[in-house]
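Memo to structure team: turn this sequence into structure tokens by end of day. - J.P.
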Amino acid sequence: MRRLVDDELKRIAGLAFERIRTEPQRALRDQATGETHWLEFNLEPPGKAGNVISAVYKTPVNVELNFLRASQDLATYAKVRGLSDRELALFVMTPAPGTMPPAEVERVENIPGEQSWNLEKQGFVVAAHASAAALAQDVWDWAALQA
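Reply from structure team:
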């Protein structure tokens, strides 16, 4: 799923893609304890951090856990790096029409709506689409770089 968004983002951003996309695993060392902690997010344009995540799961619990992990990692990174509101973003791939039974799609789609509201109140930018192209365009607009 991230690869689909990456491919579309490369098309949109051209060479600027390398200034937006980062390796998803990041080690941060706690200065006080010396312990290393691992965070996962895959977008880091200058002064910002974000993540492309999936809500294409059959169980709402998996979708909620994905949101929780992604938002915690970004919030922690923001605290350590001194990032502020609107500099953190979650881009959520939702199920495409016809890929799941309608009742499951509705249950899964309700979660991003509720989670989005909570995260936006905390200063996150949140976008959800069933299309990789639409998600990549939102990433590009949020990153605010010149191609």
